[in-house]
Every structure is written in structure tokens, then in C-alpha cells.
Design a protein that fits this description.
The mean pLDDT is 88. The chain starts with a helix and ends with a helix. It is mainly α and 17 residues long. It has 1 helix and no strands.
């Protein structure tokens, strides 16, 4: 589940930037 959370966070960050 940790991986999923990390991916989600990264995806959100990438989308914002």
C-alpha cells in the first residue's frame, strides 16, 4: 500500500508542476 500512496503523491505533484 505504501507504493500506491507514493505513486499517487508523485502523480499529484507531477500534475501540479
Amino acid at each position: 500500500m505504501f507504493s500506491f500512496f507514493k505513486t499517487l503523491c508523485w502523480r499529484f505533484y507531477s500534475t501540479k508542476h
